[in-house]
């Protein structure tokens, strides 16, 4: 049920508004306040979906209510109610964050359309917040080790800048999590984050994937196609496993980073792009450079900031927290209660050699939840997660 607060000192107008909204939709629950001060007190106590607020009122006028409400509950849309002489003020309130305004006496259709639109906006804001929360949880970095704290501190310092970042570390350590947090904490977080797994794309297709192509550029190019650099415009391009990129593609990436321009395959037209590039690899790029498989100039373009993600064996104290996190997450996915791991089970899991790192640990926790006892013991670990 949508909760609507009407703040209006004129009883006749208030009665009209209550009558219209109550008769329009039984899912509207309408609250009333006779002045700005009492309305503000209600806003502190209740979570409203919409506020209709008069401009001229005793004790506290509508502009003051609007400013207070935006500090208290910034997500609530506020529609101002204006008399004939208040129109200029009503327009100005929209610069202060009001959703819209309606004039007295209220026109039925105008009022109802404004209310529906404002409630739709509130619903969209709430859904976006839930989506962002789910995204944040999906890419959460779990642990309390010093090395993880150092990585998070580095992200906080680097994310607001446009500096390029090279993330290194073994497979399964969570390099993509670092990339996602760099994007979420950056000023570009409203733009797209485009991911490219350079190891998964054949060398003959990587240039088309990154830079796009024009119709007829090659046999299967039936139409023009934008590449990842273009689709990431205004956001972040994450080049995962960049150590597997061909030398030919490396040369074009280097040019794109130098000039902030790209050319689609088969075209000589330059396209300007505004992209932050973050790369990751599990390879020793300095060794790759020495053996002629990676361009040194590209390395220095990418490695403005280096973030090394450690192997799980280097942060064993984080394993109990990771077990608890994965157990809860997997239980939620499966619609079951999380399972408890005994101290002996956790100690045994901490002693293992995690060659597959955090990804391997997650798989083992899922296996134990499916196959193990109600309380996971060291016996379950030996039976279903043994690495011998």
Q: What fraction strand?
A: 15-25%
Number of separate helices: 16
- The helix-and-strand class reads alpha/beta
Average of the residue pLDDT scores: 90
Given the C-alpha coordinates, what overall shape results?
Answer: extended
Instruction: Kindly identify the CATH topology of the largest domain.
Output: Rossmann fold
- Proportion of residues in helical segments: 40-55%
Could you tell me the radius of gyration in angstroms? 28 Å
Supply the CATH superfamily name of the largest domain. Answer: P-loop containing nucleotide triphosphate hydrolases
| CATH second-level architecture of the largest domain | 3-Layer(aba) Sandwich
Return the domain count.
Answer: 3
Number of strands: 14
How many strands, what sense, and barrel or not for the largest sheet? 5 strands, parallel
Strand order of the largest sheet: 2-1-3-4-5
Question: Would you list the SSEs in sequence order as H and E?
Answer: EHEHEHEHEHHEHEHHEHEEEHHEHEHHEH
How far apart are the termini?
Answer: 57 Å
């Amino acid at each position: 049920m949508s909760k609507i607060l009407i703040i209006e000192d004129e009883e006749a107008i208030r009665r009209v508004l209550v009558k219209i909204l109550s008769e329009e939709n039984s899912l509207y629950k309408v609250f009333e306040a006779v002045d700005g001060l009492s309305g503000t007190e209600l806003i502190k106590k209740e979570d409203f979906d919409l506020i209709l607020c008069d401009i001229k009122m005793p004790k506290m006028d509508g502009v003051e209510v609007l400013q207070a409400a935006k500090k208290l509950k910034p997500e609530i849309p506020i529609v101002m109610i204006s008399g004939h002489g208040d129109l200029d003020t009503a327009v100005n309130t929209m610069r202060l964050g009001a959703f819209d305004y309606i004039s007295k006496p209220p026109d039925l259709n105008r009022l109802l359309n404004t209310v529906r639109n404002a409630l739709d906006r509130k619903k969209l804001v709430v859904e976006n917040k839930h989506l962002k929360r789910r995204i944040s949880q999906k890419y959460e970095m779990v642990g309390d080790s010093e090395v993880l704290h150092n990585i998070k501190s580095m992200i906080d310092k680097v994310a607001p800048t446009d500096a390029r970042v090279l993330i290194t570390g073994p497979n399964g350590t969570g390099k993509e999590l670092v990339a996602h947090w760099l994007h979420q904490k950056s000023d570009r977080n409203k733009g797209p984050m485009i991911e490219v797994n350079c190891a998964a794309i054949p060398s003959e297709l990587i240039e088309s994937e990154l830079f796009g192509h024009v119709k007829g550029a090659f046999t299967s190019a039936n139409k023009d196609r934008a590449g990842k650099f273009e689709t990431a415009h205004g956001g972040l391009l994450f080049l995962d496993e960049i150590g597997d990129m061909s030398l030919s593609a490396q040369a074009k990436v280097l040019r794109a980073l130098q000039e902030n321009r790209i050319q689609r395959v088969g075209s000589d037209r330059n396209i300007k792009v505004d992209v932050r590039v973050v790369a990751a690899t599990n390879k020793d790029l300095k060794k790759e450079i020495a053996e002629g498989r990676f361009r040194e100039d590209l390395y220095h373009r990418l490695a403005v900031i280096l973030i090394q993600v450690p192997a799980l064996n280097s942060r064993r104290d984080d394993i109990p927290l990771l077990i608890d996190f994965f157990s809860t997450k997997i239980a939620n996915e499966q619609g079951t209660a999380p399972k408890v791991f005994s101290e002996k089970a956790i100690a045994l899991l901490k002693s293992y050699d995690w060659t597959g790192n955090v990804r391997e640990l997650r798989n083992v926790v899922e296996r134990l939840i499916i196959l193990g006892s109600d309380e996971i013991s060291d016996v379950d670990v030996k039976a279903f997660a043994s690495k011998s």
